[in-house]
Design a protein that fits this description.
By secondary structure, the chain is of the alpha/beta class. The chain has helices spanning 4-9, 15-35, 55-78, 94-106, 123-139, 150-154, 202-213, and strands at residues 40-47, 81-86, 113-121, 167-170, 189-192. The chain is built from seven helices and five strands; from the N terminus they run H-H-E-H-E-H-E-H-H-E-E-H. It starts with a helix and ends in a 9-residue tail after the last helix. Bound molecules: farnesyl diphosphate.
């Protein structure tokens, strides 16, 4: 969801205003995905590298997560949406951890749509976390080194329950993956759109999905 800051700067607004508008774009996109019968949407809303931003901006992003969960959770749960928050819990304040746990618990039996929020997430961090989990299991004698396969390591990832993403889409025109879903995105189709996230609409999503359908996915085959 890139481009909130530039969207705000272009209007002479503080960056936090761009993030607030970004939440509106997120609401629209969740609805658009459900309209188009998609099963999963995973959004990158706070990376482990985002801690380097000014404290006021970090605080604004945390407040937006609080507000989003508080305002939308009840409705999403009633509508059958399952919510997962991917990322490290360490470093998050107790109230945020409680909020996340509640959102996941209240929605855990829902199946109509999956909204996955990567928050305090980093792709390398996820792989390190999984490696640590496997190392621990081996040290405890629950696994042998020969058991360490791609599937086994995948089961220790924050994304263990999720299918690999078919499409990874970045807005704002930047051509980088920036530590998002590194493990799962091994064979994802990558797409970069020249639109700031707050301006992202159902039409952009439909355009991306049309382009995705025209891709030839070979997974390394001929
Ligand atoms: C990147 O734009 C966006 C982010 C780092 C945060 C994305 C967050 C939201 C859309 C709102 C929060 C939503 C929840 C659910 C917490 P940027 O700030 O890097 O923009 P720039 O590259 O133009 O400066």
């Amino acid at each position: 969801m890139d481009g909130n800051g530039r969207w705000a700067a272009a209007r002479g607004l503080p960056r936090a205003a761009g993030h607030r508008e970004g939440v509106e774009a997120l609401r629209r996109t969740v609805e658009a995905c459900r309209d188009l019968n998609l099963d999963h949407l995973t959004v990158f809303s706070f990376s482990t590298e985002n801690w380097r931003r000014p404290p006021a901006e970090v605080a604004a992003l945390f407040d937006l997560l609080r507000l989003y969960v508080k305002r939308d959770l009840k409705r999403l749960v009633q509508e059958g949406v399952r919510i997962r928050v991917l990322g490290a819990r360490e470093g998050l304040s107790d109230d945020i951890v409680t909020l996340i746990n509640d959102a996941e618990t209240q929605s855990k039996h829902n199946t109509s749509f999956n909204l996955n929020i990567a928050f305090n997430y980093g792709g390398r961090g996820e792989i390190v976390e999984a490696a640590r989990g496997v190392a621990q299991a081996v040290a405890e004698g629950k696994m042998s080194p020969e058991d360490v396969t791609e599937d086994a390591l995948g089961r220790f990832m924050w994304t263990a329950d999720l299918p690999d993403p078919d499409l990874v889409l970045r807005t704002s025109g930047e051509l980088r993956i920036s530590n998002f879903l590194l493990w799962g995105a091994a064979y994802s189709e990558l797409m970069f759109m020249d639109v700031w996230w707050p301006d992202f609409s159902q039409a952009h999503l439909e355009q991306a999905i049309d382009a995705f359908r025209r891709r030839d996915r070979r997974y390394g085959g001929a």
